[in-house]
Amino acid sequence: MKKQDLRFPDGFLWGGAVAANQCEGAYQEDGKGLSLVDLLPAAEGGRWDALQDPKKAMETTYDYYPSHESIDFYHRYKEDIALFAEMGFKCFRLSISWPRIFPNGDETVPNEKGLEFYDNVFAECLKYGIEPVVTINHFDTPVGLMKDYNGWANRKTIDFYLNFCETIFKRYKNQVKYWMTFNEINMILHIPMFGGGMDITGVENPEELKYQAIHHQLVASARATKLAHEINPDNQIGCMLAAGSTYPNTPNPEDVFAALEADREGYFFVDVQARGYYPSYSKRLFKEKNIKLNIADGDLEVLRDHTVDYVAFSYYSSKLTSADPEVLDKTEGNVFATLKNPYLEASEWGWQIDPIGLRITMNEIYDRYQKPLFIVENGLGAVDKVEADGSINDDYRIDYLREHVREMREAMEDGVELIGYTPWGCIDLVSAGTGEMKKRYGFIYVDRDNEGHGTLDRSKKKSFDWYKKVIASNGTDLD
């Protein structure tokens, strides 16, 4: 089909995205409890090992913790939001740090200082006409819940989460309309510490424990959706998936089915959150993995009756898979290992660049759920060079984003309903997976290195003015 030159609809939510645990810093200021990332060193200090062994992470004292100061958004949010406003942001995706509101996670009375911080952040956004888009739990389950309850493996965490939700839904009733219950909810299968705030080491059937925790999160999401609609009928509640369609390595039907199964792994979550029931294929999945879920009375009804209003997702790359175990030429992509696609280029971190894959992913998700979509993460992590005159010529980032925006337009012409677009790390921040600063995504450069050195001063990259032009033209001027 012919490529179209299209305009985005009026009211389209152009913006950018960050997460509290990757940008705020102030890790113990004003009564905040510990977040999961506050236990983690940078990559060189053993971050991946710590992610896989939470007990070891809690018992180890590392030389440097990137999250403890991060980019200090906690003290610099006014400066940063003013820069977002200068770009013309219509929305700003951020998260509320659960342990900043309930330091251990299980308290009944919230931390007022934490609530006041987000009062101020949202007021600053609304001053510029920027709509806050809030993730409730973005890899930020309090460490206290992991230590005392093993996080989402314990059904009690549902009630702790709902207490958190009720507190923020009521507090920010007049400031926030767009919410997401969990960030990249499918990541619990790959990094249980981040996704579930839990330790699965030494467990006899870790898959069963993960899916039990998943059930708790799905029930919590549905009950939070119900609660949000009761508190404010105008609230829009979304789920959020780490997405990216999987291609078969060959036309071999076994490869095709392997790709289908790979996609189902993620769609499983949205099948429940958007359709309201466990998919038919889950019966075989549970049988083959020897998973017996403990489902309480009323759980299936709440899942059925309180589905999400929209489907949000992150997209960085497509994936490639084979049923042949001898095919081993793999690369990395947002935690998911994937075969190298010979038709695609890759970033410095091995993440394959596939703009058309975004159009494919959007069509597949929309065809499956028929609910509005929201692209809440997309971007290119790269090493940026500051020139002698202070300029940062990140044309590679502009090229990446330009091609993805073009394919977004094509998907919308295909019939996909899209609410908005918030590229990831609109300001440089600490990488979740590696703890690095040199892996930069932002339109705004932050003077900080991997060891925590630097002034934290902000400066505009070339992509800043490019994205400003894109927003001003409502997506028609991409040059």
From TrEMBL:
Identify the Pfam families for this entry: Glyco_hydro_1
Q: Which UniProt keywords apply?
A: Glycosidase, Hydrolase
The secretion signal range is none
EC no. given is: 3.2.1.86
Lineage: superkingdom: Bacteria
Q: What is the lineage of its organism?
A: Bacteria, Bacillati, Bacillota, Bacilli, Bacillales
Write the gene name: ascB
Please state what class of enzyme this protein is.
hydrolase
Gene Ontology BP annotations: carbohydrate catabolic process
Q: Which InterPro entries match?
A: GH, GH_1_N_CS, Glyco_hydro_1, Glyco_hydro_1_AS
Q: Which residues form the active site?
A: E377 (nucleophile)
Entry similarity comment: Belongs to the glycosyl hydrolase 1 family.
**PANTHER family hit by this protein:** 6-PHOSPHO-BETA-GLUCOSIDASE, GLYCOSYL HYDROLASE
Q: Name one GO molecular function term.
A: 6-phospho-beta-glucosidase activity
Q: Which residues are listed as membrane-spanning?
A: none
According to UniProt, the name of this protein is 6-phospho-beta-glucosidase
An example Gene Ontology CC term for this record: cytosol
Show the Gene3D superfamilies listed in the entry: Glycosidases
